[in-house]
Amino acid sequence: MRFLDKLESRFGRLAVPGLMSFIALLHVGIFFTFLVMTPQAAGGIVSLLLLHGGLILHGQVWRAVSFIFVPESSLLAVVFGAMFLSWLGRGLEEAWGAFRLWVYFGGGMLAMVIGSMIFGYVATGLFLFSTVLLAFAMYFPNEEIRMYFFIPIKVSWLAWLDVAAVVLFVMKEPSAFWMVFFSHLNFLVTFGPGFIKDRAHMAKVGNRRSRFQEATRPAAAFFHQCVVCGKTDVDDPTLDFRVNDSGDEVCSICRKR
Q1: Domain span at residue 17?
Q2: Cα dihedral angle (47, 48, 51, 53), rounded to 10 degrees?
Q3: Which of 35, 53, 61, 93 is nearest to 182 (CA)?
Q4: Ranges of the chain with pLDDT below 70
Q5: Domain for residue 103, yes or no?
Q6: What is the pTM of this model?
Q7: Are 117 and 242 members of one domain?
């Protein structure tokens, strides 16, 4: 984090606020542009925007950026998605500042490009945008949105639904594993170490609590105790105790010796 602090002190002024709102606005604009085009022409443009590592290596370098501008295919998804993405972006800029959001999202783009060059997958920015939701949920888990304007749902629930959907997608399409992995690498790098540290700390606290409770647990009360071996009716409920001539209790095992 110190390295990131140094970068922010030097280049933070270059980060323009409203990154997610800008991308959302472009999604809407590109979608409506596609509406006035023939399906064949729109499909041809989409194919030029997609991330394709092999074609980037052959000179189509714009694909390293253009893939995040491929919009959804329905008007409802584009409009609501743009509104939601802008809201998430404003929240993360409030938590991080514009510079760190640029680093987070730009790092995710870079990871996707490198992964595509290595494994050859073709992708849009869909899974990358899901990491914006996941990051927002880490800071504002109890924030609520009104789905379809009247169904309240917490952001943390949406994040878990997103994780479940991604897992099911990979189970159904195992070949997409590397695309999903590199799409979420920015989230894993940003929040993974802290998550592991917190889990390890919780495990240590749990172990210390268990040892303390074990050490301070009062001994179970007993009614009979053998004067010879020291066993009680709590140690072995099957023992039969008798009082000898001295007035001491002796268990059935010791009486046979």
Answers
A1: 2-199
A2: 110
A3: 53
A4: 1, 148-149, 198-207, 209-221
A5: yes
A6: 0.76
A7: no
